Amino acid sequence: MRVGIVTKRRLRLQRRLRVRLSGWHHTLGATVTNDLVVMTWNVENLFRPDAGDTSAAETYAAKLAYLAGLVSGTGADVVALQEIGSPTAAEDLRAALGEPWQAVVSSHPDSRGIRVAVLARHALTEEAQIVALPRAGLPAVPDVDGGTLTHLGRGAVQVHVDCGGPGLRLLTAHLKSKLLTYPGGRRYPHTEDERARGAGYALLRRTAEAVALRVHLNDVLAAAAVDGQPGMPTILCGDLNDGPDAVTTVLLEGPADGDVHRLDKGDAVRLYNLGRRLPPARAYSRIYQGRGELIDHILAARDLQLRLGSIDSLVDDIPSIGASTRSREAVIVPDHAPVVARFTGL
Predict the structure, then answer these.
(1) Closest CA to 154 of 113, 202, 207
(2) pLDDT at residue 28 above 70?
(3) Is the dihedral of CA 208, 212, 215, 217 positive or negative?
(4) Is residue 57 classed exposed, middle or buried when 0-12, 13-18 and 19+ CB atoms within 10 A define those classes?
(5) Cα(106)–Cα(242) distance, rounded to whole angstroms?
(6) Count of CB atoms within 10 A of residue 309's CB?
(7) Following DSSP, what letter does each residue of 96-142 receive, concatenated?
(8) Which of 113, 141, 180, 216 could make an S-S bridge to 198, C-beta 3.0–4.6 Å?
(9) Higher pLDDT residue, 303 or 27?
(10) Exposed (0-12), middle (13-18) or buried (19+): which is 152, by Cβ within 10 Å?
(11) Please, what sign has the CA dihedral across residues 221, 117, 168, 173?
(12) For residues 113 and 89, is the Cβ–Cβ distance under 8 A?
């Protein structure tokens, strides 16, 4: 009975997806030969099910088909993924997309086993696994259990995509969420003081992780600069777990810019948050307790900002979620929308 229900849901989603894609193509515009389409997507707990669990296997197959159908339908060239449950899950999605897609997967998951990955239909080279909190960043941030943080909760990945010309440098990350934990892994506080400390520890961790990424970017962007301008098209994207105006998001942009069309000394290391150019009615990537929030971001160097043709958050299918995760255990559609940017003339 359960398998039959999942099959019907899968067919309904496939029909809806075909309709949605026609609308999304209208929003994103027609893709031409020299365009580059980049997507970031938190695919929500993509774990390969245990052998013998036929119901979970059916749900997993339906989810893979949904993810692959949407990625293919949008014409994406590169997809940054968050909440990949294992390298085998990443390989299953790569196989669902087919040749010539390639994958690079982080070797540093969190305690739940989720990690980031990058898929591309161009040649893909891993350049760095970003894990440690550098001395040039915030190396002495306290942990909720009384220790000191030394690394990102989920490692970030940097890749090079051979998509013509100099190619593309892409980094993807999944920063600390606003979900609070307490000593010993508790999900509930003993006192209101402990609740306040828990919120502070979560913010400190997310801040330290964002600073670590910015320090890494300072090095790689400055090293590649040519005559004070970006020497390599660069994107940072992923689930940053806060809005575009949050300090932990803004600091990733680097030096502020008054006019993108005027050259200045910050151009070589500056990134621009492309989410600020989303259609206002779709400027969110998750719905939490009925309210849209933009926590999935694409940040791009100046050369790419100037070539942005369109950007959209494909929110049509995502549900509203609450604090409980129990109802999300057997779902096909992730709780985050993919954010898709199309760059022209590359």
Answers:
(1) 113
(2) no
(3) negative
(4) middle
(5) 22
(6) 17
(7) HH-TT-EEEE-S---TTS-EEEEEESSEEEEEEEEEE--TTS-TTPB
(8) 180
(9) 303
(10) buried
(11) negative
(12) no
Q: How far is it, in rounded angstroms, from Cα 7 to Cα 55? A: 10
Of the candidates 246, 273, 259, the residue with the CA atom closest to the CA atom of residue 176? 246
| Average pLDDT over every residue of 274-291 | 97
User: Residue 171 pairs with which residues in a beta bridge?
Assistant: 158, 236
Report which residue type is found at 291. R
CB within 8 Å of 192: residues ≥ 6 apart: none
What is the distance, to the nearest Å, from the Cα of residue 233 to the centroid of all Cα atoms in its chain?
Answer: 18
Task: Give the span between the Cα atoms of 89 and 19, in whole angstroms.
Answer: 27
Helices marked H in 127-273: 192-224, 247-250
Q: Tell me the C-alpha distance between 173 and 136, whole Å.
A: 19
Q: How far apart are CA 76 and CA 161, in angstroms?
A: 13
As a whole number of angstroms, the distance between CA 89 and CA 48 comes to 6
For residue 50, the Cα-to-chain-centroid distance in whole angstroms is 26
Whether the pTM exceeds 0.85: the reply is yes
Query: Hey, is 48 helix, strand or coil?
Result: coil
Q: Give Cα separations from 221 to 68, 118, 297 (angstroms).
A: 32, 20, 19
Closest CA to 308 of 282, 281, 340, 283: 340
Q: Where are the alpha helices (DSSP H) in 225-324?
A: 247-250, 302-305
